[in-house]
């Protein structure tokens, strides 16, 4: 929200009061409160008839500083509030003659004690940002409504990322962003997942602790500042430090919640009925059997909206005309090795058998006069489940338990964005705050019941909407994209932005939701989709099975689905890392290479985990330009090497694309290529790429419960590579990619391979291999 008219003037009808004179600093063991007058105080009479703004600094955990700016604190505050996690923290506070300092870990805030307002945030002795003259402001508009804003310094060459799943330019500098969930597709400034957190390439993050609308002006209203504002008498935000961007995300997700670890089966290929297509059990079997007949590995089958009868969403009952034996049908599908997903939303249509039950028991959101809030958009006469009512949550979950008992393994939790603000909630929650927060309660209710029924690390959603903390309930997908190359690119931008907002797992509708893709786009999007964290074929008015596009599409789906299954030892270890450290599996290049300036703005390529670079192809011709960081990289698919530190131009047919493995990588490739959930440690092949002199490569193999089974380290000195394995109880092998001759292997046998020498330890429990190169 803009409050000024250029740099000098204030917009007509607005009044801004800024802290101008620090009058007092009060400390206790855990916090420091600064009192500042909004004008210079020259004598005692100047202390009358004016505001006193307060800034309180504290720390909920090491390397995180909480800032609370306050005008009048006596007003009643209604929830909801984000859940903030805390850790034991030693805070060091010193108040000197010229400056007051609060320090938490390596992060500190320094407040000048002279005239004016001078606040700096430092990681060790490096200033990362600050709040200066005319930065914070208490503001009233022409209707005398209060707002609070902050302006934090933006340095030269500094870029801002994140703020949720945004499909606008990846670097947010110059943009106006409102944190307000909307159902706007992927081609507008609106977003399904708005997260009031941004990450800077300067090595810090900022989380604004407000579920309601937060308005950002990012190098726009003031081109050297990031401004954020909220309605009301106070503003709270956190400065989050770290040694690098990964540590910042780790600390942010410690604060707001770590992503859960999705079950291993979710990483396979999902196929859906699509949205408005006609389908019954025969249609479903035709597609499922067609996939099997063509040797196309399939892991999950999803029933979209019309598994329920039209006008009755949600009643959680199968349309008996189309599915007369749902329990039998689900068991027959599961006998084919499939998991089952069913579409739901948090709305109850008036024709649903549940509407009267929800209305009579107070389970639906109400208007001020006590009526049930209703409208006809989406479902005729629909109401909203009131997830602030514990009884309504149990009622909703009980309906889902029936489906789980029938054989449903997970739910696509669609919608949750079009939430009205002229309503009354059971617990008295502020409807402005609930607009964004509603999705959190909705997804949590569904995730919790899945976890209760199926067990920890067996719960998974396919969710569209989210707010801060929603990363705890994976997986999320990108919403309604179009079947164009442009929309494919905007989807990737959205996913990379969401990943830099604390979300570990993300997917998208392969080939686009709206319209029907041309065969070339379908094949290119299949490559991208199966090199994403999660992979789903889904559409609107047409089916998405590959043989409806062309026969080559069948080959592409087969090849890349099998590739993904074989990469699961690497991918699931990356998933575990995401759940522990809050890192995205699909990583913007800046996250892995923050020291390479070229990587700061890249949004047409990404890292899949920490070792694989993927550059999707966004044109019919098969041409691609991408940047390769320093070092000698190897194309996983072709074994060709690419020298880094430069841009590369290539042409690819539909069987390949740039999938480059970083040098000094030990990449685990599994023995299974037909399913994503198998014993990753059994017969795993460890591919060693470009191990440099006095360098080390390490990999960890986990099981499908996320527990470490095998850790292998390779190191090189001169012409000797030493490989040490810890926990090896099952057969494994080593592939020296690009090396076709070795002099000797101690305690192992040698076999020539197409990609390089294959070395098999003398016994499955072999702990050390010593390899002498020629």
UniProtKB/TrEMBL annotation:
Domain Glycoside hydrolase family 31 N-terminal: 56-216
Positions of the Glycosyl hydrolase family 31 C-terminal domain: 582-666
Keyword Ion transport: no
Stored Pfam families: Gal_mutarotas_2 (PF13802), Glyco_hydro_31_2nd (PF01055), Glyco_hydro_31_3rd (PF21365)
Occurrences of domain Glycoside hydrolase family 31 TIM barrel (ranges): 259-573
A molecular function (GO) term: alpha-D-xyloside xylohydrolase
InterPro entries: Alpha-glycosidase_related, Gal_mutarotase_sf_dom, GH, Glyco_hydro_31_C, Glyco_hydro_31_N_dom, Glyco_hydro_31_TIM, Glyco_hydro_b
PANTHER family given in the database record: GLYCOSIDASE FAMILY 31, MYOGENESIS-REGULATING GLYCOSIDASE
NCBIfam families given in the database record: PRK10658.1 (NF007940)
Descriptive protein name: Alpha-xylosidase
Primary gene name: yicI
